[in-house]
Design a protein that fits this description.
Blueprint lengths: L2 H5 L4 H22 L10 H18 L2 H16 L5 H18 L5 H6 L3 H11 L4 H50 L4 H55 L4 H8 L15 H7 L7 H8 L8
């Protein structure tokens, strides 16, 4: 059983999101281009005030290591595709059947191949013979601290989103002061008005087009990964308790929406193909292993 193949969703969903995002960005900036003079929206002084002030305040508020962690979390969230709940359930049912057919130690190879850290550790606990309740406690502790770390990253981004517009206002004030200093000179007024207006624009755009969406992305991904973690915990504990694969399938499918619960994971033909049981009838192979029977499915 190759867990890497099971987990890999392929880049299609990520590519679709990127394509739609690119279209939205083009539409967004087209609104600026329709005015005919794009140069008036570029203000180096305003950009320097907003970016310098925002990230300077971020360094005062948070450790540099925390900011680096936020960057890594964001980078990983857009580079690694999300796993589907149905795929995790399929993996857990396969592991349950594999244990019935080949024994507990056969899961060691899956421990090495598992791409999710939580699942790899869960299989390690299972192979090492940890009691079911201890496995649950260890994994729950891990996902709780995982949530705390993700909450910290989300909090950093929301803080930056709050700071950005304020420095946009600072840039606007700087522009107004420069404008008032040249109240008798029309050329000075015309030169400083863009600073006063575009700085606020930069702060609002950075806050609502970058930092808040990034924070929402982390929150959504965290909630999804916590759900996957719950499925893994319930699946591994059930395997440890030697719950029947069919019962395990029914139990884990309760995590899915009703429309996603169609199809049977535990079937004789599928088991024969998955575990390479040979060309003999699937029920005969299962009977030879002495663990499952055809009427069980």
């Amino acid at each position: 059983m190759k867990l890497k193949k099971t987990f890999f969703n392929g880049p299609s969903m990520a590519n679709r999101n990127l394509t739609v995002f690119a279209i939205c960005v083009v539409i967004f900036f087209a609104g600026f281009l329709l005015n005919g003079n794009t140069a008036m929206f570029f203000n180096l002084s305003g950009i320097a005030i907003v970016l310098g002030g925002t990230f300077g305040a971020a360094l005062i508020s948070f450790r540099l290591e925390r900011l680096v962690t936020v960057y890594k979390v964001l980078s990983g969230s857009y580079r690694r595709p999300l796993k589907k709940e149905s795929e995790i359930i399929e993996v857990m049912v396969d592991l349950s059947v594999k244990r019935k057919l080949k024994g507990l130690l056969s899961l060691e190879e899956d421990e090495e191949e598992a791409t999710m850290l939580l699942l790899r550790r869960a299989l390690g606990y299972l192979v090492d013979g940890y009691p079911a309740e201890q496995i649950r406690d260890l994994l729950n502790t891990e996902i709780n601290f995982f949530k705390l770390r993700r909450d910290d990253s989300e909090r950093v981004l929301r803080t930056l989103a709050e700071i950005c517009p304020s420095f946009g206002v600072v840039g606007s004030v700087v522009g107004l002061i420069a404008m008032l200093s040249g109240i008798d000179d029309t050329s000075v007024i015309l030169k400083t008005i863009p600073v006063a207006l575009t700085s606020t624009l930069y702060g609002v755009v950075l806050s609502n087009f970058l930092f808040l969406p990034f924070a929402a992305n982390i929150q959504e991904r965290t909630n999804h990964e916590l759900l996957l973690g719950k499925i893994i915990i319930e699946g591994v504990v059930a395997i440890s308790s030697e719950l029947h694969p069919r019962t395990l399938e029914y139990k884990l499918k309760s995590f899915l929406t009703p429309s996603s619960r169609q199809g049977r994971l535990v079937s004789l033909d599928r088991i024969r193909k998955r575990f390479n049981l040979g060309n003999e009838p699937a029920d005969k192979n299962l009977e030879n292993h002495g663990t499952l029977r055809k009427h069980s499915f």
